[in-house]
Amino acid sequence: MDRFNVAVKVVQNAGNLLRQCRLEEAEVSQKTGHQDLVTRWDRRIEQLLRNEILTAFPQDAIVGEEYPPETHRAESVTWYIDPIDGTTNFINQHQNYAISVGCWNGSKPLFGLVLDVERNSLYWARHGGGAWQDQTPIHTSDRRELSELLLTTPGLQYTFLESHPYQERMIRLSRKVRGVRCLGSVALELCEVAAGRADLFVTMRSSPWDHNAARIILEEAGGAIFTVDGNELPLNQKSTVLALNAIELKGRILMNEKSPL
């Protein structure tokens, strides 16, 4: 049984379920505050994904957002799943949210799937096979001048308004690029860079289940991804994220003291 085909089927089934649901206020609760929300659908979809994956591949491990990760060996096949990436969008807009599933064999990427649920559009990539949106191949843009670039970030408050070590450099960068956009979903915004509709992505906080599927799609589309200070993006821990449409931009965009910004 092929993991990729199982994943596509499971993600599409979960998307069909989410498109039909409508939330009641009683179904929404806070995690750490009023801007960090969870619904019963986050938990229900994650359980659906877990059950289907582990039924087909009981030896695999799963790291998800809503439930504690199972113990797994570093060399095992691990699935990183986010049942609803963009929960606030799901609650307030019922659009611009995604189901994200990335599969890795130890530190080797196998495939990534990001379903834009309401548009029923699937971004996907298998390692070494290029990146796709549905049946159309996608690639990052060829824009290289800062004044031409579109920057996207999932949280304007965290990126520009709250104090953090990179705040001043982010503000300077925002003044040099063509524009800044905020969609509110790490996975979908990385896919926007992969598809050439944005050129840079930055977030000050992201979890493995947020980006470990979309990073495969981005790299297969010709992009590059790091922490904001240029280090390798960790696979199994929370981190900052800097994604670029091409590796050539790395030295000019890095959020470190040596950066020209």
Task: Describe the structure concisely for a colleague.
The chain has about 260 residues and is α+β, with helices and mostly antiparallel strands. It has nine helices and 14 strands.
Q: Strand portion, in percent?
A: 25-35%
Tell me the helix content.
25-40%
Largest sheet: 7 strands, mixed
What count of helical segments does DSSP give?
9
**Mean pLDDT score, rounded?**
91
Distance between the termini: 49 Å
How many strands appear in the DSSP assignment? 14
What spatial form do the alpha-carbon principal axes imply? globular
Low-confidence stretches: none
Classification by helices and strands:
alpha+beta
- Helix-strand topology string: HEEHEEHEEEEEEHHEHEHHEEH
Query: Based on the structure, what is the oligomeric state of the protein chains?
Result: single chain
* Rg, Å, rounded: 18 Å
Strand order of the largest sheet: 3-4-5-6-7-8-9
What does it look like?
The chain has 261 residues and is an alpha+beta fold. Strand 5 (98-105) and strand 6 (108-116) form a beta hairpin. 31% of the residues lie in helices and 28% in strands. The chain contains 9 helices and 14 strands. The strands form 3 sheets. A 7-stranded mixed β-sheet has the order 3-4-5-6-7-8-9, with helices on both faces. The protein has a 5-stranded mixed β-sheet with strand order 11-10-12-14-13, sandwiched between helices. The chain has helices spanning 3-20, 40-56, 87-92, 156-161, 167-176, 186-194, 208-211, 214-220, 250-253, and strands spanning 28-33, 36-39, 61-64, 77-85, 98-105, 108-116, 121-126, 131-133, 136-138, 150-152, 179-181, 200-206, 224-226, 239-244.
